[in-house]
Amino acid sequence: MKLKTRLLLIVSALLALSIVATAVSLAYNTQRAILDQAEDDGKTLAGIIARTADMGETVETEAESLLSQDMVTSARIVSHFVAVAEKAGLSPKEINRHLDAMVGSDDLGEIGVTDPKGKVYLHSEPSGGFQFRPEASKQPQASEFWSLLNSRSGVVVQDVLRRDMDGKIYKYVGVSGIDKPRIVQVGLDGKVIDTMKRTLGTQEYINRIVKDSGVERVWVVNQDLAVLHFAGAGKKSAELSVIDKANLNSAMRNNQIISDIEGDRITVAAPIHKETGDPDAAQGSLVGATLLHIPTETLHEALVRELIMTAVIVLVVMFCAVLMLTHYTNSITAPLLVVTDAAHALQDGNLNMALLDPVARRMDALGVLARVFQEMARKVQGQKQELEETVVQRTVELEEKNRLLEFAQQTIENELDVAHSLQQAILPAHFPNIPGYTASAIMLPAKQLAGDFYDYIELGNGRVGILIADVADKGVASSFFMAICRTAIRTVAETLESPAQVLSEANRRIYASNPKSLFVTVFYGVLDARSGWFTYANGGHLPPYLFGATKQPEKLPRTAGMALGVVDDAEFGEHRVHIAPGDRVFLYSDGITEAFNEQGRGFGDAALATALIAVADRSPGAIIQYLVDTVKNFEGNAPQSDDLTSIALARSFFAGSF
What is the residue range of the signal peptide feature (predicted)? Predict the structure, then answer.
């Protein structure tokens, strides 16, 4: 038997069997599903009515609460809109027009926005021009909103009240303005709220159920079976039958929804419990029950219609299926055999493209398959060679790009090394030769180029300027800015004596040469070696420590001033301390106190003070080395997070002569 015949018989038999089985199963399941669904719907509806009956007393309050929240949201939207509109330059008339549109689209009664004195100047009619006052005696209703003028996030929600301006019943809510003191108020006519409440009652609800859901009768009773609410189609009696009363008593006694199919109707009874207000809490006390009569007449009619439609569909589908299978068996099997033969030929490497031409001329999916197969076969032979050539070409291109990248990277590294060497070269290697004083300094950059720097400036007559600074950020830009700052401060220091004046003048020069808006913290002090007085000014830098063998480390008092380069007219204060024989002064950048270990913990001021106590009697060079070793040991394997710069100055017990 040929493939065509076998395919036709097998598919026809399977299709006929599946259609008949489906029809029988569908008829039975339809009958059960309609009845079960009607019964389940009745239970669900009874449960809903039971909950609705008890919630009737609280639903009005909850609805008004939700309405209040919606009005608060609308008021906040208006507050944001008015702030944006005024900032955009809209006139009050244009803003009022938009407020009128809001009232029309959001079902609000009116909108009013006041100025900071409580007078309504933006409004939708009729609230324009009203003046809010704080005295409750003069404005019993409106005075509650006065507090919003003194708050940026205040909210006032009122019940339905008689408003002060004309005695009409309205509900108002208000919020504070977001950009300036103002009252933003929205109102809703009390008649709208009354209408809403009336439509939420239990009687209205069961009336709609009887009208719209196909229920014949609905009762809501108390525990004594006294009828509280009733709704029935046509002129149905509200009297309960003996069976109805038995069902209601059973539902209340067993505390569960019950249902029963009796002839031409479905009866459902459900208990009603007092709402507790907590959706997760146990049910409240039993207060009554609800009973529904649902007619089955319409259900039987629906079942008959479904069965007739199913039978017709079965006959039509079986007839059409046989015709279609007979027609399409030939059209499917023949092209498939051709494509199969072509696939084998392609696998063997001797495909004749003309073999697929009759199938490729078809306009259906098989024709598309044949054409795609032909195109694929044409491309397969050329793709291998093309792929190999492409791989070779791309490999050569990648190797060349990698070479250029490596060369560029090496060039950058070399230039950065040169810049690093130049940066280190401008830092002073030794402290000036001043009898009785020694100093040592270090600057370890976090990257190849640093933003920290220090300097010694010889001023003559036994005076020397000591400078330490920290430029914001790190890298190339900071290193260039560092050079600008150092030059500016050194130039000014050679002409002005007061440290405060030096920082003030240097700040003006730095600000004028700062296109990237960088800034630098600076500590600059002038040491008078003859007297031991150290006069300094601080431009936002960490204060140095003064300590000695018999003196605990203490930070130098701060002076007025801020980082240089921020504003052009910054002013700076100055202070002076006496450096006694044996004292040490330790100047440093935040690369020491803000060094972090692998756990992310910072070194901090306490650890620095402890380290200074340990080296209080050592030379400046030993102090510097000890601090660097201590910080590095603290960091462990964590990378250096910032430039590490420090200066240690010591006055010996035996001073030489000048």
Answer: 1-23
Burial of residue 286, with CB atoms counted within 10 A of its CB: 0-12 exposed, 13-18 middle, 19 or more buried:
middle
Instruction: Report the pLDDT averaged over residues 640-657.
Output: 85
pLDDT value at residue 231: 86
What domains are there in the chain, each with its CATH number?
63-196 (3.30.450.20), 214-295 (3.30.450), 427-651 (3.60.40.10)
Give the single-character DSSP code of 163.
-
Beta carbons of 523 and 587 less than 8 angstroms apart: yes
SS3 364: coil
Helix, strand, coil % (nearest 5) of the chain?
50, 20, 30
**pTM higher than 0.85 for the full model?**
no
The tens digit of pLDDT for each residue in 175-192 reads 999 989 999 989 888 888
Task: Let me know: does 648 contact 620? Beta carbons within 8 Å.
Answer: yes
**CB-based contact 582:549 (threshold 8 Å):** yes
Separation of alpha carbons 521 and 563, rounded Å: 5
Instruction: Over range 486-502, report the average pLDDT.
Output: 96
Q: Which two tokens stand for residue 424?
A: 């280190």
For 166-184, b/e burial (b = at least 16 CB within 10 A) is eeeebbbbbbbbeeebbbb
Model confidence at 417, pLDDT cuts 50, 70, 90, reads low
